[in-house]
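Treating backbone geometry as a discrete language has practical consequences that deserve illustration. Part of our work consisted of pairing the sequence of a single chain with a tokenised description of its backbone. What the numbers capture is local backbone geometry rather than side-chain detail. For completeness, the protein is quoted in full, as a sequence line and a line of structure tokens:
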Amino acid sequence: MSERTASIERRAFLRSVGALTLGGAAGSLTLRVYGGPEAGALEDLAGSTAPPGTRVLVLVDMNGGNDDLSMLVPVDDPWYYDASYGHGGLAVSPASVRPIAGISGCGLHPSLAWLASRANAAGDVAFVLGVGQTQTHEFSHFVAEDNWRTCVVGGVEPTGFLGRFNDVAHGGSPVASVSLSGLHPSLVGRQVHVLGVPSVADFGVEASWQWEEDDAYWAAFAAMGDQGLSGNLGAAASMIRQTLEAESVIRPAADPALDQGLEWGSLAWQMAQAAAMINAGVPCQTYVAHLGGFDTHDNQLTRQAEKLTEVDDALRVLFASLSPARTGDVCVLLRSEFGRQVTANGSGGTDHGQAGTDILVGSPVTGGVYGEAPTLDPGGPTRPNRIWDARVPTMDFRRVFATVLTWLGKDSGVSEDVLGADYEELSVLSGGPPARVRLPAPSRRRQPA
């Protein structure tokens, strides 16, 4: 992977993604297909469907750096509640935490009512502790985002890890990668294209109102997709063909009953769009949703509670909307670019951290806690157990991705091809028992020497 990434310049990536807008007498036409750096010819998948049993990942990007310590609360660790070296007044009260059956020493934030109920009733919610990377100590949102979305740390890579998976598994498909809110870089590939589908019912080509019902206009537009065109016209023609093919697959999947009463563009709305496409058998294994606002440098108690309520509501909508034939096919992965620092700042919040917690939800998931929680004990006045007051990651994020990719592709070789290395996988999607949980032993709160 290193040789390949070193030879690719980022500007090639920036030139190759984004919506194509065509101008004309009818006004602008926005095609919601985003080409990868070398995206090629597409197969004609109009009318085809993915059968029940097709494995589907719904990835939720909790963007901004979620404070996972107050999401999965370490109620037995006194350092979390310590006024000088912990969350202090920002810590979630043990009395308000939602317990999880079979898991001691921690519980869920009170806003995560549905998730706690799901974990206790179905047992298919897994928590992966200490997720991050130790190659670099990166506190920048933009670099940390790029690291996990590309799975290349400290290098330049124009494709995303899910885009590369789809290149391997679904090369040439016009609908393999669906972004539910704008363009998500994790989906960008070389052979596949990213569909921006904020609304299934409205997906496709947009034209000015005076041309919306004009058959002659649309016939002329379709003719612009002439395969015989070359150069810039050929590129535009290719995008037109790709959009029309994708539209013929996506739009029939619309189910207005699923998003009725939901706020357009909200995470719950995004989950309803994903459910509609999954239920209809759209041949896509990778959906990515986005929810920002987790950068809680101030007013964290209120802001995180609101954000986690949005996450909880969205999960409820997704799983309530899936048809019985598809409920066993879906795994949701919740993640953020990093966690937050242990010590509360002076603005009622926490600053950028390192290690975080990934959550997997769905019938294929063996619930439980995986990995080893990083210690919260600062270890001395210079805090040698922390990176600039942030917890040290104990689980490489690419192990989580390798586990998911192997599950999606039903082949461990796929994850190695996509990630460029062989990462040890977790048992969370293998159908076996969870790995032995390693939580730090509770320590007596003391003032560091």
Summary: DSSP finds 13 helices and 17 strands in the chain. The longest strand covers residues 125-132. Residues 34-201+261-429 form a domain with the Alkaline Phosphatase, subunit A fold (CATH 3.40.720).
